[in-house]
Amino acid sequence: MSTDPTEGAPVVPGGAEATKAERSDTPLTEAEATQKGIKNFSLERFPITPAAHDFLKQNGMAPYQPFWQRFWDGLRRRAAEASKQLTRAEVETLLKEYSDIVSEERAEHGALYQAETDKMAPEAEFTCQFPGGCTDKVTSTTWNYVVRGIVWVHRAGPKQGQPIRRGVFMINVNPKDGGTQIVGLCRAHLRQCVRDRQAAGMDSRSFPYEDAYRIVATIDGRREGRQEMLRGAVPPRHLRRASDEAAARMLGISTGQVLSEGATPPGTPVGNVRLEKDGPPADRSGKRRSQR
Fold first, then answer.
1. Which residues contact 195 (CB under 8 A, 6 or more apart)?
2. Residue 252 region, left (φ>0) first, then alpha (ψ -120 to 50), else beta?
């Protein structure tokens, strides 16, 4: 999962050739556009000439990518300062300058995030395991958790002081039985799951495989412990009565089991028993153990 703000940056060419007849490269001011009768014109909406716009499209302009959004903001500012549209030559120069800045940012970005292959993952590449179905290939990678240019570290636990790492794996928990599953997601579905879980107020972290496996093992261990406890759970014991205590002393019950013949009964009663009306009490050791 990339959080690179320069995503979508083009490879800056030495000058791409137009594949069709070039449009006008004559810059207009807002006053000139008004005189020509051009409607809805403004330097905010059209900061560059048609020829300059064609040049950017030839070089992979993608308006929704962070690189191009930032670059267009810069073009609007330059056009406002010049009070006219920017020509193709001016746009080419600015694109080269901006791309140099982006290259430096990418180097700093890579140093912070330190993305690398997830060596603990079972497979270096696998098919996205999105529950809804996906055939995209996933490369197992991990990276530092960075917020506003700061690498966050673990404050406690076995990794105290070490950078918090993120990865392509998330943990799904079955709401019915509490069962857990580690799923590796492609970039698009990882982002989708993070957003959906954040909106639902759920844990939206992604993990390297090592951390996901450790957390799942802990969850499963606790779940098994809870199930084991529930299997032996009984309603709270009733308050003891004097007759119960006397019967316990008489029968020599200490840990829910009847003492063998000749054994010395304990001095302190510790359990409740119910005497049968006829004959000696039946062996209820199992039931008494559960009542403990």
1. 204
2. left
Q: Which residues, 6 or more positions from 47, have their beta carbon under 8 angstroms from its beta carbon?
A: 72, 75, 76, 78, 79, 80, 85, 86
Q: Measure the CA–CA gap between 85 and 87, rounded to whole angstroms.
A: 7
- CA angle at 150 for the pair 146 and 152, rounded to the nearest 5°: 65
Kindly give the interhelix angle for 88-113 and 66-82, rounded to the nearest 10 degrees.
Answer: 140
pLDDT band at 22 (very low <50, low <70, confident <90, very high): confident
Closest CA to 266 of 280, 250, 282: 250
Q: How many Å separate Cα 229 from the centre of its chain? A: 32
* Segment 24-70, tens digit of pLDDT: 899 999 999 888 888 889 999 999 999 999 999 988 888 788 888 88
State the distance between the two ends of the chain, measured CA to CA, in whole angstroms: 53
